[in-house]
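cron nightly-structures :: item 1 of 1
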Amino acid sequence: MTRGPTLSAHRLPQLTGRLPIPAQTRSPSAPLLDTFNTVPAEEAHETLLTCLHSLRWARRVAEHRPYPTPEALLAASDEAAYDLTAGDLTEALAAEALPTLPEGTYEAAHTALSAAHAAYEARFGHVFVICLDGVPQNEVLDHVLEGIRSRLTNDPEEERVVTAEELRRLARQRLGKLLQGRGL
């Protein structure tokens, strides 16, 4: 059996002993991340509780400092949120409030939201939470009311899963705002 032509040997260029390392750019939130990474654990813990009021979540995220990038911190926040127990969710929900409506919202809208929330709370026993990240101000009311109405059809276990996801998204959004220096 004859063999076909072979490829020529691949040669590496001569290396001078120095390899170029790409310049590392730091994001605008890097100074705030540096501060978060270096503050005392208790202060980091308290800051995290403003994003999600779960002692276990805040402790877990704070204990894994330092974070090399804001993205790493947000990923750690997500990971810790995925592990919230039913008790952790109850603790976090106790500190949540209904989303605020845009200024100038009609009184009838407030009444409709209050009624929908009362029905939700009666069914599930906790405040309704929803992340409004990326929702334009003029669509907030419709988004919240639609969310409450559609989630009222969930069974309690399904709603617990949805609520946990919304809390994770809220924590990520709030932590992102803190890293951008915009506060809560």
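cron nightly-structures :: done
The CA atoms of residues 32 and 181 lie 7 Å apart.
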